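User: Please predict structures.

Assistant: First:
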Amino acid sequence: MLELRPNCECCDKDLPPDSVEAMICTYECTFCRQCVDEVLDNVCPNCAGGFSTRPVRPKTARRPGVSLEYQPPSENRVNTRYSQEEIKRFSAATKHIAPEHR
């Protein structure tokens, strides 16, 4: 089950569980759409994978025990350990390779 991390690892923007701006890689590294497009060039600085829109967890349990009430989002904020300069270099060297071929 996804953690639904609460923030962008790059700019620290809040990304609540219903955010359509949240993007994740296969390891659930979480970034806002603006950082993915303008800073990361669709290259995860942690794994070099691409990004997809993070699914939104239902607010209402339309099936018993399945909703934000029963599976709350993470409160643990995560920030990338890489500097903006490191991210730009990594992205520039990787972005020309399609995510499915990285």
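Second:
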Amino acid sequence: MHATALVDLSPARRAALKVSYTARALDGARPRHLLTGPEVRPRHGDLVVAAVTEIGRHTRLESPAGRRVHLYPGDEVVVAYAARYAPDQFEAEPPADLRPCDLVAAGGIAAQVLSARSDVAAPTRLAPVGLVADAAGSVVNIADLAGPEAPRPLHGVPTIAVTGTSMNAGKTTTGAMLVRGLTAAGHRVGAAKVTGTGAGGDRWMFHDAGAVAALDFTDAGLATTYRAPLDRITAAARTLHDRLVVGGADIVVLEVADGILQPETAALLHRDGLGAMVDTWVFAAGDAAGAVYGRERLRAAGLPVAAVSGRITSSPLAAREAAERLDVPVYGAAELCDPRLAASLVARPLVGAVGERTA
């Protein structure tokens, strides 16, 4: 008996597959062959066909087009193995083999849950059938589906990055409002989410705010950035930035997700590769203490911060409390949408850290 086997999917079975956002670059959108067997060892980013066995937290799967497709027991889905870091939901790691596992993100991430927030429902359960493979039996990884390498731009453009205290601090909304304001100021704005978990919602928000192009790390071959090598994440961020500039953006907005205590984000903030791309930082926080702490963390990393925003601005009292303790302004969503204010964030002299770095 063979330890591994290459299985052909029938046309009817292929047609019934529900393909996730993370697998959207798969040629033809639906695989023809699967590699299966007890000795198959998944890697971060490998695409897998799995059967839904039990509906839990995620009742729907995000499609390549952004539609949330309802899931039912017995459905077969195309998702990617990857780790997840989400304090408000799941901490999860890819399993060592094709054992039963969990759907840990609606964008299409398969992993084993290690811990979960106490008020979050149990995950939707998956039974992997086999890794997506080509006709020769080679496994298809999302890294194999990355977009073409962009040529290095002939010139730089102003770049604003948004990071924040944690998940749900308002980072994406802050970035989208900046895109809106800069677009209203007459700029061609490109936007990219350079870290996080594969899902299309944030990318669609950037599009809807007026970005001429919006990308995320999945376009650079990463299903998630949690547990990915730092050099790989930095290279992916550079690739996304370059693609936006070469594509005609005259200002770029980047989102650095997951919060400043997340291991990869914390390390990236101290790496020259990311800092060299960014002229201005905006910090998103949920409360005054987080805003003050985050501002100091970015200062210690030598990163120039222009403003604080995020969920904190939904509370006038919390925003005022933070403003009294910060040396940068606190702006709400409506203010970031103002073209003059948004443009001023790119041009203003910035308070930095050691050496008083300026824009």
